[in-house]
Design goal:
With 425 residues, this protein is an alpha/beta fold. The chain has helices spanning 14-28, 55-69, 80-83, 94-103, 179-191, 204-212, 238-245, 269-276, 313-322, 337-344, 357-360, 375-386, 391-406, 408-424, and strands spanning 2-9, 32-39, 47-49, 107-110, 130-134, 197-201, 221-223, 252-257, 284-289, 304-306, 325-328, 349-352, 367-370. It is globular, with a radius of gyration of 22 Å. The two termini are 15 Å apart.
Length: 425
């Protein structure tokens, strides 16, 4: 079985990390897997790239990114700062499509393909059967990766993707046939030409979103998770881990981490800041990774350690093991790598009960699921974990959940079974 995994990057960003881990898991389970990316950072031979570092290639990439942003120029009131990018994917990557078809894999497994990597129309030109893992909502929306609040109803999340986008709150548009409408129509037209396409919602929540969408209503949509190497992300001695980071031995340490952790609003830093002011436990310190100290940091009721970006597994594993609870206040979440990594290291996690968080966190068994965006309940969850008389049991349950359901061998075998079904189809 020959699998070709397609992702814009190989090691940078949550989707890239998840795709790369699946690639590793497949290789470990005897599958002939290759990965094809636009921007390769690793030195792994099985990761291929069209990347060329000459001046012409760099200029071409700059032009592509400019053309991708061009349709957005007439929309002056977008809210991308709060909810991430808006991707039209209008520029065809003929070289990439040609390379995919020349490799001629049994299955092309798409992951995150934006950033000018693969146009919407290019997908229909791929000759092999397609499996597509959705890392966000872009695959079935009119261009947003993370749907915003439905401003037309002033309540709930936007669900216009279930019919036709338009009057897009993300774009700040009041036109029925705006850019979001056009992008959605392009997706319907292009994807309808692909006879053998299977959609994967990495969380049960995203699976349900994709099933309800007008784009994938006629495609098989299944739920299969990301995976993690539990032989790498595992518990180590807490005292040693704290010494590595020069953290205090007798404090309760609350950990928070994400890419652009303090600057991206939907990561929940503001909500966590509010929650920390409501915690009853006093002997605490706060640890933040994924961001340096902001210019105007909040006035926290405890000492804060800003660790900046952590770019290697050893750093992540040691900081998970150094802390007592992971606070993950994200307001939009599919299937968080951070939650999976923390639990695999035996660190209980407190998060809002949204998205795919409940796929990994079992309430009051290996962590705490707070009511949506309720900072008082979030603070209650942190207190509950830190004061728990059966903390060691919580930690063991956290580790067991990931080993039993998300380990490389467990998940790889589920994907192999899916690939078999796709090929038989």
């Amino acid at each position: 079985m020959k699998i070709l995994i397609i992702n814009t990057n190989d090691t940078f960003g949550g989707a890239a990390i998840a795709a790369f881990r699946l690639h590793e898991a497949l290789l470990q389970n005897g599958v002939d897997s290759q990965m094809l990316v636009a921007d390769k950072k690793s030195d792994i031979n099985s990761v291929l790239t069209l990347q060329n570092k000459n001046l012409g290639e760099k200029l071409g990439k700059t032009i592509i990114l400019f053309l991708e942003k061009l349709p957005l120029r007439k929309y002056k009131n977008t809210i991308s700062k709060n909810f991430g990018p808006f991707s039209s994917q209008v520029v065809s990557n003929k070289k990439l499509v040609k390379t995919i078809n020349e490799i001629n894999p049994d299955i092309v497994h798409l992951h995150w393909i934006c950033g000018g990597f693969l146009s919407i129309e290019d997908i229909a030109k791929i000759k092999s059967p397609i499996v597509w893992s959705l890392h966000d909502q872009w695959g079935f929306t009119g261009g947003c990766h993370c749907v915003c609040d439905d401003v037309s109803k002033n309540s709930g999340l936007c669900e216009k993707y279930t019919k036709n986008c338009g009057n897009c709150g993300f774009l700040g548009s009041k036109r029925t046939k705006d850019l979001s409408f056009d992008v959605l129509q392009r997706k319907k037209k292009s994807f309808s030409k692909v006879n053998n396409m299977t959609i994967i919602g990495l969380s049960k929540w995203l699976q349900n979103c994709a099933k309800s969408s007008s784009v994938f209503s006629n495609k098989p949509v299944v739920n299969l998770p990301n995976t993690i190497n539990t032989n790498v992300f595992k518990p180590i001695n807490k005292e040693i881990a704290r010494n590595l980071w020069n953290l205090p031995a007798y404090k309760k340490l609350i950990l928070f981490g994400a890419v652009s952790a303090t600057s991206t609003p939907y990561k929940g830093f503001a909500e966590l800041t509010e929650a920390l002011g409501k915690i009853s436990v006093k002997n605490i310190e706060f640890v933040v990774f994924g961001s340096s100290e902001p210019k105007n940091p909040p006035n926290f009721p405890c000492k804060v350690h800003y660790l900046g970006h952590l770019n290697d597994n050893a750093s992540l594993i040691s900081i998970y093991n150094a802390c007592d609870v992971m606070a993950h206040p994200s307001k939009r979440e599919n299937l968080s790598n951070v939650i999976m990594e923390a639990l695999s290291c035996g660190l209980p996690v407190v998060a809002f009960d949204i998205g795919g968080n409940s796929d990994m966190i079992e309430h009051k068994k290996n962590g705490y699921l707070a009511q949506q965006f309720d900072t008082s309940d979030f603070a209650k969850g942190i207190d509950w974990v830190l004061n728990n008389e059966k903390y060691d049991e919580l930690s063991k349950n956290a580790r067991k959940k990931i080993v039993d359901e998300f380990d490389y061998n467990v998940v790889a075998n589920k994907y192999i079974q899916l690939y078999d079904k796709v090929l038989k189809r």
